[in-house]
Design goal:
Blueprint: H1 5-8, H2 11-14, H3 25-32, E1 38-39, H4 51-60, H5 73-83, E2 90-93, H6 96-107, E3 113-117, H7 123-131, E4 134-138, H8 147-152, E5 158-164, H9 176-185, E6 191-195, E7 220-225, E8 238-241, H10 244-251, H11 261-270, H12 274-298, E9 301-303, E10 309-313, H13 318-327, E11 330-331, E12 333-335, E13 340-347, H14 351-364
Parallel strand pairs: 1-11, 3-4, 3-5, 5-6, 6-7
Antiparallel strand pairs: 2-8, 7-8, 9-10, 10-13, 12-13
Helix pairs in contact: 4-11, 5-11, 6-7, 12-14
């Protein structure tokens, strides 16, 4: 092969490494020939799919030869009603990752700067580098966002700021007082994206409900997903809420049919399955306490989390421990790529799944 195709790629892409998702159960079964594997790696909902979502998808089977509704009218209408916004303020996506990338591609060019926190969600540096823009990484404060330092880092070249609230992989969050004070400091020509993929799990009254803030802060975009608490990670469904002008711009390069018929139907249906959501939250709360009690007993430091995962300091390089757990049929997530080489991120599973993780952990710490 004589052509250097790497040299043909955009410079930012040349220096990127492919995102490494959590190892799927089927792959581990093939590699190690073991069964009864527990996956606590990808922050998925362990209770399975909503019965209402499943029934809605089954109704779509007969028409899968047809293209989906490119505008997602019924899902948008239901979201608009729930959120108190206009249909024209909502952008749908193939998961919220799709929408995050769309937003960056609409507003960010190579001459711009994008600000985000150390230990923040990996999509932010990926999309910034792919565009060729400058990454401005703010050192974390107590494993979370340092909003004062973020505001101080804004320059005339700053075009976008990503804030994950709560943050993945640390589980930390920003309260409404601090976030509002931060928004007051941000120039109106700097887009602030608040990524709320885990917002359903937060119970604290100080957690900000940011969608209503869009009226006050036209430069604010809020993104959410159906992949976590709503249990639809496999069909990919997410959305953004912003003012009408921003939403119109985001929809210009959005690919037609970027959300499939099954995802549209399932997302619309699960919004009405209040019992399912409550069960998911209850299981998560109990599972979180189940793991925390063991970490406290064994003396492991962990980052307090308001999400469906918890990140733990293993007091040594976490990579080998991750591999040992794999061999015992437990998949967790090392987060060395987030500059956290000694930490493992453990998703909250069902009681018996958490118990298997605990048994393996105890064996490893003998």
């Amino acid at each position: 092969m004589s052509c250097d195709f790497i040299a043909l790629a955009n410079k930012g892409v040349q220096e990127l490494h492919p995102y490494q998702p959590g190892k799927p159960i089927s792959e581990l079964e093939r590699e190690l020939g073991i069964t009864n594997i527990v996956k606590l790696a990808s922050n998925e909902n362990p209770i399975g799919i909503s019965a209402k979502a499943k029934a809605a998808m089954e109704k779509e089977f007969a028409d899968l030869a047809r293209y989906p509704d490119a505008n997602g009218y019924y899902l948008k209408a239901k979201l608009a009603e729930r959120l108190g916004v206009g249909i024209s303020q909502i952008t749908l996506g193939n998961g919220s990752n799709d929408v995050l990338e769309l937003i960056a591609r609409v507003f960010v060019a190579p001459e711009h700067e994008v600000i985000f926190s150390q230990h923040a969600f990996v999509v932010y540096p990926i999309v910034t580098q792919a565009i060729g823009a400058k990454k401005v990484v703010i050192p974390a404060k107590d494993w979370g966002h340092d909003l004062e330092a973020t505001a101080a880092a804004i320059t005339p070249n700053t075009r976008m700021i990503f804030i994950a609230n709560p943050n993945n992989p640390t589980g930390t969050w920003v309260n409404k007082t601090d976030l509002k004070a931060f928004m007051d400091k941000v120039p109106e020509d700097v887009i602030v994206v608040v990524d709320e993929a885990y917002y359903e799990y937060v119970e604290d009254a100080e957690y900000p409900q940011t969608v209503p803030w869009i009226k006050e802060y036209p430069n604010l975009i809020v993104t959410r997903t159906f992949s976590k608490a709503y249990g639809l990670a496999g069909v990919r469904a997410g959305y953004a809420v912003a003012n009408e002008e921003i939403t119109g711009l985001i929809n210009r390069p959005r690919q037609p049919f970027n959300m499939n018929s099954l995802a549209l139907a399932a997302a619309e249906a699960v919004l009405d399955d209040h019992a399912y959501l409550q069960k998911a939250l209850d299981v998560n709360k109990a599972g979180m306490q189940q793991l925390i009690s063991v970490f406290d007993e064994l003396g492991y430091d962990y980052i307090p989390s308001v999400t469906n995962f918890i990140t733990v300091d293993m007091k040594q390089a976490a990579g080998p421990l991750y591999q040992q757990m794999l061999e015992q049929g437990v998949i967790v997530r090392p987060v060395g790529n987030y500059e956290m080489p000694n930490h493992l991120r453990i998703s909250i599973g069902l009681e018996e799944e958490n118990a298997k993780f605990v048994r393996v952990l105890r064996e490893m710490t003998k």
